[in-house]
Design brief:
By secondary structure, this protein is an alpha/beta fold. It folds into three domains: 4-43, no CATH class; 59-356, 3-Layer(aba) Sandwich (Rossmann fold); 363-431, GMP Synthetase, Chain A, domain 3 (2-Layer Sandwich). 30% of the residues lie in helices and 23% in strands. It is built from twelve helices and 21 strands. It has helices at residues 38-43, 79-92, 111-123, 149-153, 162-177, 181-196, 201-217, 235-245, 321-327, 371-379, 406-415, 426-431; strands at 12-15, 34-37, 59-64, 74-78, 101-104, 126-129, 157-160, 225-228, 249-253, 263-264, 277-278, 283-287, 303-309, 316-317, 328-331, 334-345, 351-356, 360-362, 368-370, 384-391, 398-404. The strands form six sheets. A seven-stranded mixed sheet has the order 6-5-7-8-9-10-11, with helices on both faces. A hairpin with a 6-residue loop joins strand 20 and strand 21 (398-404). 29% of the residues are buried. The mean pLDDT is 85.
Length: 432
């Protein structure tokens, strides 16, 4: 109970029974604080509470945005929004069935995770909870000699964010680089062949048994599909994951304000660099953004700000009148959400996210720089673990703040002739 002096307004502490022993004796509590066991709390009102019947347009959840482009905003999502998004997810999860396993390691505060779990439950798919720190045998919180969660759960389906898929590819690449020349050549040639050719079932089986079996078993060896969202997935990572795991990677696009559902790739689409066509019941339009020089008349494909309509569009932002007026508009008999993302639609009707309005910074000579594109390109380097790119409109260049990958940095240092690169500190290497 050491926290109580820092929380003077707390007057009641409810404690679960299995935590009572050793937590605090009543005499050690401040005089104005009451300790209530949960068991006693449950007995205090034995009458069942009658919940009001929920209507379709009632708010089901208040989900906050990530705040990546400003302060987090509370998004009022209705029961209709959630159910419409679930229906879209069901269509995309069509190859999953009762008894399959969904291994999840994203937080439920993420709208994509919430809708995915609700959809899995409705299909009859079991949910196994994990963490990026215990996912595989090589994860930092897995004790040596024990197995990661993926090997134990043997999932049929996972939903990830691009940075985790990038880390999987980097981890495999690192292990391959430690092998002898012949093994490296065989593995890299197999990846190249699979990404450039449509392999027959026999060739796929042969490569699995001889080359990719160990990688696939790291995730249990039962995967049917991998979902990716929340940020752009590079073509390099997309192709490498498909080649190594022999499963489709379905990239989707959505936002908290659309209950995670706008577009998604079909599971038989082998192209990369796009997010698929509109989900069931969702309308997608592009509108001109003159300041950024994006127009629907652009060649070879129309470009512009992505706006979305349909049953997935949120009711409103919570207590934010000005933001509601900016983000939602009524047009052509539909209520549209302005995403702030810049998209391009290809001849097959598939959406590609190419920029974000708030990522574009005009430098002092008038040219626009996309901070997101710079970050994405630099983040693909093996020696960079994370990166933040910023710009000042009064300057003519951008600045990158980089978190290096320690082992890769030491390797680069050795290659450029820095003596004792294996023994000096990371700080000394960064300052070199």
């Amino acid at each position: 109970m050491d926290f109580l002096p820092q929380c003077p307004k707390v007057k009641t502490v409810i404690v679960m029974e299995d935590q009572l022993e050793g937590v605090a004796a009543p005499q050690t509590l401040p005089k104005d604080v009451t300790l209530v066991p949960f068991k006693e709390l449950a007995k205090s009102n034995p009458q069942a509470v009658e919940l009001p019947k929920a209507e379709a347009d009632d708010v089901a959840i208040l989900m906050y945005t990530s705040g990546s482009t400003g302060n987090p905003k509370g998004v009022e999502l209705t029961h209709t929004n959630i159910l419409a998004s679930m229906m879209s997810f069901m269509v995309q999860m069509k190859n999953l069935e009762v008894g399959d396993r969904f291994l999840t390691f994203l937080p439920l505060a993420h709208i994509m995770e919430l809708v995915s779990e609700l959809t899995a439950i409705s299909i009859g798919v079991s949910i196994y909870y994990s963490s990026p720190f215990t996912l595989t045998n090589a994860s930092p919180k897995v004790m040596q000699g024990t197995e990661g969660d993926a090997r134990v759960a043997k999932p049929s389906f996972i939903i990830s964010v691009p940075i985790l898929l990038d880390n999987i590819v980097l981890g495999v690449t690192k292990k391959v680089e430690e092998q002898n020349f012949i093994k490296r050549c065989i593995f890299n040639s197999a990846i190249k062949y699979k990404t450039e050719h449509e392999c027959s079932p026999f060739v796929t089986y042969l490569m699995k048994q001889l080359i990719f079996k160990q990688v696939q078993e790291e995730f249990g060896g039962k995967l049917k599909v991998i979902g990716s969202g929340a940020a752009p997935l590079t073509a390099k990572t997309h192709k490498a994951i498909c080649a190594m795991f022999d499963v489709p990677v379905q990239v989707g696009y959505g936002a908290t304000e659309t209950a995670a559902s706008v577009t998604c790739m079909d599971n038989d689409d082998t192209d990369t660099g796009h997010t698929g066509g509109p989900n069931m019941g969702v309308l997608v339009r592009l509108i001109d953004w003159e300041e950024g020089d994006y127009r629907i008349t652009d060649e070879p494909n129309p470009r512009g700000e992505v706006i979305v309509a349909g049953p997935v569009i949120a009711k409103q932002y919570f207590n934010l009148t000005e933001e509601n007026e900016d983000a939602f508009l009524e047009e052509h008999g539909q209520r549209w959400f302005c995403t702030g993302d810049i998209g391009e639609i290809d001849p097959l009707g598939r959406l590609k996210i190419i920029d974000r309005k708030k990522d574009l910074i005009k430098l002092k000579h008038g040219e626009f720089i996309s901070l997101g594109k710079v970050e994405s390109r630099l983040k693909s380097l093996a020696c960079i673990e994370n990166i933040y790119v910023c710009a000042d409109p009064t300057k003519d260049q951008t600045v990158a703040v980089v978190v290096p990958t320690h082992e890769s940095l030491r390797k680069v240092a050795g290659q450029v002739g820095i003596e004792e690169s294996a023994s000096i500190t990371i700080e000394e290497l960064c300052n070199n």
